[in-house]
Specification:
This protein has nine helices and seven strands; from the N terminus they run H-H-E-H-E-H-E-E-H-E-H-H-E-H-H-E. The chain has a seven-stranded mixed β-sheet, with helices on both faces. Helix 2 packs parallel to helix 9, helix 6 runs parallel beside helix 8 and helix 8 runs antiparallel to helix 9. The longest helix has 19 residues.
């Protein structure tokens, strides 16, 4: 099943449900972010290993569902604080008969795990958490020594966006604080410092959403974001996916988001 397509099982609106069936994840900027994560997972070379995987901030389980189908030997845990999202993720798990997946509600700063996971992903969550160092430390504790942590976040400072974005924000009265952002994001040095301060060694930190990905995000946001105008969406969709494809094939010098991979230190490692 395509990335994001499983949300058809919990979507009530028929138009959106069919968009999941036909397109997979129709939110193209979200699709770009998850594709970047999937590519980093591939670089780690764990495809055939029977690993324990944690998605901290899994929402409705898009990434976990996608990975569980492709890696039946993996044991995957999704953590989410919002009860309605956990309920929807559980519904998807049951509808797809996924036996290697479980979900729970927990505070990311106080995870009930220690030295348990080979791989932890935390995608676009840290910008919502005031005590980010506490959260990084909690995620690192959940890893086995030598395990990997992948984090994505908006970047700071942000690149220049289209004037359409500011126009759309004024039109709908949008402010980032409304979706729980407590910070703009992280720079590469800032993310590097957080990894090191909480017991892991940075391996690879890079920008995503360069010129093409940022343009895709800006256009998608301008036509309505999660509730786009259907006609504008259908007209722009092929172009948005082309921009996403270009973003995935470039490593920009700066971008609207940052992705970091770090490895938990083992005893005696510095």
């Amino acid at each position: 099943m395509r990335l994001g397509a499983a949300k058809q099982f919990v979507e009530q609106d028929w138009k959106r449900r069919w968009s999941y069936v036909l397109l997979g994840e129709p939110h193209v900027p979200g699709w770009i972010r998850l594709q970047h994560v999937v590519r980093e997972l591939g670089r780690l070379g764990l495809d055939r290993s029977p690993i324990r995987f944690l998605d901290a901030g899994c929402s409705r389980g898009d990434l976990i569902t996608y990975l569980a189908e492709r890696h039946p030997q993996w044991s995957l845990v999704g953590l989410e604080l919002e009860p309605d999202r956990v309920e929807k993720a559980e519904t998807i798990r049951r509808r797809m008969s996924l036996t290697n997946v479980s979900y729970l509600r927990a505070d990311i700063c106080r995870l009930p795990f220690q030295n348990e996971f080979d791989l932890v992903v935390c995608s676009d969550v840290m910008e919502h958490i005031a005590s980010d160092q506490e959260a990084f430390a909690s995620l690192t504790r959940a890893l086995k020594p030598g395990g990997h942590l992948i984090v994505t976040s908006p970047s700071s400072p942000q690149p220049r966006h289209l004037p359409l974005v500011a126009w759309r924000e004024r039109l709908v009265g949008f402010d980032p604080s409304e979706i729980g952002h407590v910070r703009q994001g992280y720079s590469i040095p800032g993310l590097h410092q957080l990894f090191e301060a909480t017991g892991s060694k940075p391996q690879r930190i890079r920008y995503t959403y360069g010129r093409w990905g940022t343009l895709c995000f800006d256009l998608f946001f301008s036509i309505g974001d999660n509730r786009p105008n259907p006609l504008l969406f259908l007209g722009l969709y092929p172009f948005l996916k082309l921009l996403g494809w270009l973003d995935l094939r470039n490593e920009p010098a700066h971008g609207a988001a940052v992705l970091g991979v770090a490895q938990k230190l083992t005893n005696g490692q510095e």
